Amino acid sequence: MSESLVIRLGTNQQQPVAWLVWSAGEQEIIASGTLASADGLSALQERAGGRPVVVLVPGSDLIFRRVTLPGRYNRQSAAALPYLLEELVASDVDELHLVVLAHDGPLVDVMAVDRHKMDQWLGWLEAAGLHTRQLLPDVLALSPAADGWSALQLGQEWILRQGAYQGIVADEGLLALVLAAQAEPITIYTHTPAPAMAAANWVPADPELPMLLLANGALTCQANLLTGPYRPQTEYSRYWQQWRNVVVMAGLLLLVALAQRGVQLYQLAEQDKALKAEIRAVYSQIFPGETRIVNVRSQMNQHLKLLGQTSQSGVLLVLTELAPTLAEIPALKLQVLRFDADRSELRLQVTAPSFGDIERFRELAGKRFMVKQGEIRSTEGNVEGTLVLKDKS
What we know:
Elements: E1 3-8, E2 17-23, E3 28-35, H1 45-48, E4 53-57, E5 62-68, H2 75-78, H3 81-86, E6 96-104, E7 107-114, H4 115-127, E8 134-137, E9 149-154, E10 157-163, E11 166-170, H5 172-180, E12 186-190, E13 200-204, H6 210-220, H7 235-286, H8 296-307, H9 312-328, E14 333-340, E15 345-352, H10 355-365, E16 369-379, E17 382-391
Parallel strand pairs: 1-4, 4-8, 9-12, 12-13
Antiparallel strand pairs: 1-2, 2-3, 5-7, 6-7, 9-10, 10-11, 14-15, 15-17, 16-17
Membrane topology: Single-pass membrane protein
Function: Inner membrane component of the type II secretion system required for the energy-dependent secretion of extracellular factors such as proteases and toxins from the periplasm.
InterPro entries: ATPase_NBD, GspL_cyto_dom, GspL_pp_dom, T2SS_protein-GspL
């Protein structure tokens, strides 16, 4: 978008706040004005809309210094910057936020600002619902002069750029003291009417509205205080912060659902295992002579084929119902089993240690089937007999 909202904050919350909406594409001012204090910043929400917001802060609140490193500037040597700056400033360097503006070999230009002041400015913007991706000192938004200083007056203050990476903000009284301290008169190119003081060579520059001049300079300036811990969040990060709790809860719910599903699958697996064990037990009861059971279904089909049955469901039902009875008389063993589908009869040839076992089986089976006893004989210490079972229904 070619339109931008440029805001200049004050040193304290009670100072006026100048703002301007500039269209770089149309080269025209869309709107401009001055707020009485930072308390009114929320009135600029509508002006911001979808436009980028660039924020200027007073250069008087920053420290501009050039330091010399022992070697060339790199990531490792950058860690020494606060200690080198400690000898050049009166502030506690641990409380300063440092930004490197430029470096050439061992020479490094830095700007520094108190972290409390950064938090204060960003707090005003956050309270007003304004988001910015660039915050820079106003003195660096003013175009530098080739052989002197450049200056403009904004309200009761003078903004002066003293070099590529140097500048001050002062009222007329302080400006007079600064100029009087110079060894020789400084040439100052001013974009606004010169003040009535003779301690400098004031040269008129192209007249321009102060905020428009600063806006144009800010939009082309690469300096930015929003680095390190103040680096603005990306849209992704901002949305992630908003939806993080929802995502975490959804993840927990998913884990719970997966855990429940896992428990269900485990229970089904255990039920399947128990059912297979029960089927094997029933098969063993019906065919106690078989000790090697590999595939119950296949082995049962082989037995049914030997019985010559075309309807397997009937004999399976009879065998299933007979299994509990066989289980109660473990001494009784099946030797031959035949099923007559036409008569719906199951013919069993059994052996047992005594006549009592066969009689016990006949009584128990008689509760469910009509039992007809065939020939019973004793041989080699066992009793053999034939039983015919028929469904009572």
